[in-house]
Design goal:
It is built from 30 helices and 42 strands. By secondary structure, the chain is α+β, with helices and mostly antiparallel strands. One of its GO terms (molecular function) is ubiquitin-protein transferase activity.
Amino acid sequence: MYGWGKNDYGQLGLGSENMLISCPSPIDANQSVISIASGLRHTVYLTSTRKVYSCGSNEFGQLGQQKSQCRPSLVTGFGAEEIFHVAAGDFFSIAIAESGLLFGWGRSLNGELMCKQDSLHEPKLLDKIMHWSVVQVACGAQHCIALTEEGTILSWGSNTQGQLGLGSSEIEFLEPTIIASLNAFPISQICAGAYHSGVLSPSGTLFTWGKNNWGQLGHGNSDSFQSSPRLVKTLRHQEVVFVAMGEEHSVCRTRNGGVFSWGHGGNGQLGHNSMANVTQPKKIMELMGTTVCQICCGRRHTISLTDKRKLLGFGLNSNNQLGTHNDTSARLPITIPISLTDDRQLSCIAAGGDQSFSGSQNESSCPLSPEYLMSAGFKQPRKYSSKLAAVYNTLENRKLSDSAQRELAAIFSSPASLNASFLGDNHWATNSKNPGLSLSKCSSALVQLFRHSQSRDIIIHSIKNKLIPSLPKVPPDIETLRLHLTIPIVLHFAKQYKEQFTQDFTGCVVSFARKSNALPENGEKVLKFWLSSLGQLYFSRILNVIKSDIESYLHKTPASDYSKTDYLKVLCIYFKRLYEVNEAEKILSSDQFYIRGLNGNGPQLFEDYKNWRMSKVHCQSGTPVEKFSFCQFPFVYDAQAKSILMRIDSQIHQIQKANMTRQRNINNIAQNILTGQAHLRSEMVVLNISRDKILSDTINQIMHQIFQSSEGPKALHKPLIVQFNGEQARDANIQNEAGVRREFFMLLIEAILDPCYGMVKEDDESNLVWFRSTHGVFDEDEGFNQEFFLFGIVCALAIYNDNIVDIHFPFALYKKLLGEKPNLTDLKELYPSVGNSMDRILSATEEDCLEDWGLYFSVEQTEFDMTTEIDLIPGGREIAVNYDNRKDYVETYIDFIFNVSVKTKFENFRKGFNALMEDNQIFNMFRPEELQKIIVGATVVDWRGIESSAKYHDGYQAGHPTIKVFWAAFHQLSEEEKRKFLIFLTGSSRVPLAGLTVNLKKVNVSVDHLPVAHTCFNLLDLPPYTDVTKTVQKLRQISFSTVLLNLSNLLLQINSLKKKPSKIDFRDRLKIVMCRSQFSDDSVDDELSPDFSTLSINCNSESCSIDYFADENANAEESAELANRLLKILANPIIVISMIAASFVLGFLLACIICKCKNSTEQKKNDEQAPVYNFVLPSAPIAGQNCYTQNLYTPQQIV
């Protein structure tokens, strides 16, 4: 050892009391010294044999002896305890035993030794701290701070400058007191100056507090003092590994050997070539290029040791503490000369008061590396380590030792210890977007630990009873938030063994969620960032911990008890945080948040809805009632459950509206009873519709309902009844199956979406429709806009009355209805080729030379045979797309397609839609994909599920032979045939999300009969079939009949044009009904060839017919050509005739034509004598008893 500087009391231990020692001089200690602590006038040494020595002034007993010493003298009084560290204040000393006990001696006027005493000349056990195991201690002038093995920070002594960090104005504390504001903060080092203190985390985060008159806390100000720990922000990402403090200045060393300093600089102790004070950490530029391995502070000077074993010093030198043979202070680092033998190298340094020390080692016996020099040598709080992992690897199921149990319990009981246990390689860069945590390390350790039954019991008990309750409400730093990721991962593994410790595990999850929910806003924001960066594996593990606890609670608790505790509410609030993160980052599919046991349970859904409505009503009345409801967290419901809730809400509103109307009628009658002129309103919305005028009738009657009522569109909230003119069919129950209403909406939407109206345009590639862009031509047309408004009302009316509508809009429509922004994925769905091209543009590199692609910020659109170039931005057709602006181009293009080009039309559509739906509070609970499902129904039908939910009547049951035959035959049908059967039975090809119940009724008729469908009941009159093959044939005839019915409806629409000539060219008739632009050049010629035969459509009061008149010059090839052309036209989806049905009808027609044409060469007749081949179709379905009944028409019925 070497010492230099002030030695007026022999504090250097050189054997003399020379006032000053101007250069490093050897100390004859005859021992290998491993630790030095120096106070104002004394020094304490710890040797490798764990003996404590002291020298210097002993006026207050700070040497632990009876008198002063100028040479190191042995300190006794520790009993059997082995000392591993020593520390010194101005006039007192402290030693830490391996057992974690503290011993102290010297002056204690301010409670430095936890008592009020002038002097203690012998080491005294500090029993007030005995129940903590201390691993580090730091002493200021008159105060102490200690770090325990659990990571707890304690402080005691003088507090005149807030140096204890307790946030208290008391001037002294005689007992060790926890610095609660640092709870759960991981700590690797504590430090103390004369009247200020600090703690450093393993990731380099520094908190300081205490006296700050010179800016020594590094907070950027020189406030007199700071009584609570505060972050030194400028050092956050500097990778600080060590901190030292002097009387009024502070320094730190970084992982790469850089040095920062701040505080009082009046003696040059900051090393910035200045005497100025610095209030924020500032890098010592003069040490750039030098790797500093160790650094320490005296009262007003600083010394350092470099990787080249070179001593540097700066600051006050009035007592030769810089070892330069003069007393000139240094403002820059200067070399401290020291004479060493060839086989020794400097290994450590120390400083205190106005004295300095250095130690050396034999290099040959102990090679010194920079990494060794940089190791601080402090004992660390407990944390999970590879050493502990090795112990558990060898245990298997053997009993844990007492020490292993204590260590494991300490780690999982202490927030700080667990926090420091699984740091990632990037933990130095911990910030709001990087937790610095390795969940893979954590998971690997937990897999290993949970294999051992004893260790998992210890872990769960520790987490439940100690760790979670001690989580801070206000985290001191973002590093503390790591626990909010680590704990749920621990619970994930514990959940797999919960049956083995049910008592302990119960309540763990909700206790953690309650703590996490209480985080302040900034903490929650950081936690969300971290959660979003986890990836699917760990995010799903955290999600499933919460989800499974909710499901477990639901399983064992009746719905009536949900509000008796806040258990579900706490879990759902945390669950909501995960949902919000997932919504922003799309980590998992949204259906992962659906709660089992909640969805599909009608009574429970109604109970939940009732609680929700009750809470809202009481809240509006000013007397809030706390009623838990999952409706507050709608993301836990799947689309089917939400559709049920919407149905409940809509029906309640309908009943309320009907009751209000009834009451108004009663009041009106009472007020006008004498005049007898009371004006009564219907309690329902009744639409009397003609099939051949379905669109005009609906528009006129809806507009009448809206404008007749002062409520406007809300008048449509009453129950809806649809009656087709001339038919007896009427829905039997407005709250259940409604076949007539269902068919009405199907036919109405078909009519609205007919391309001849120009409201929408179908894409040939995707077969999806979107609002037709008219470039603002009709945007100011009130009538045109009103059509879109009514279209929105019709769609909302269908949903409001629990009907699905087959609208072929892209997903973007549902996103826009719910306020979400369409993106490139939506463009790919609507216009696949365009979307893929945009994808290529985005993925292009600079080498692809986008400028050569000929793209500009404009778009060409063709509408009604007119092509227009439109600027996407002002002057866009002159702005070429390049590598730098390609993203702007794609975003602008998408915005144009989905927003700009259809703005007025969509806004009117949404206005109409919202006019009905804005009062339905369930509507806003839907996600876009869920809204799509309830509007258009399930696209994938579970046919086996329909079979399992079917009901049987009048003698039929699931095991009946006829029922077995029926389902066996049904499942042999193709997907298309099954959907046609669905239309026949229910009036729609889609299945509602709430499911479909098919009713099969036994009828005592011949097996030659075909089934009869009652659509309002989803009821099928099923003859007693016994043969599967014949039943398949019967069901296929149903499919054909369904297409004929659709064709009949088409003919009725054509006939409604009231064209009087008995024979009108079929192509011209179609041109009247549909937009000519819908036909491609190869399907219909511009001029109808005179060589072709003509077709006519004729309707009378009985029926409608397609008539074919053969030309005398027609031959078989021409007839075939005509049939093919007609097939293409009828197969067009606009006419809604399937290919199979069209080919059947036209095949029959073709056979007749060919047969007739073979004889045409032998028998010539005039046009007036040409035979007529008539396909008779019913003009309207046959009415059944109080229900729309679809009868089947066999080939024999076609004349």
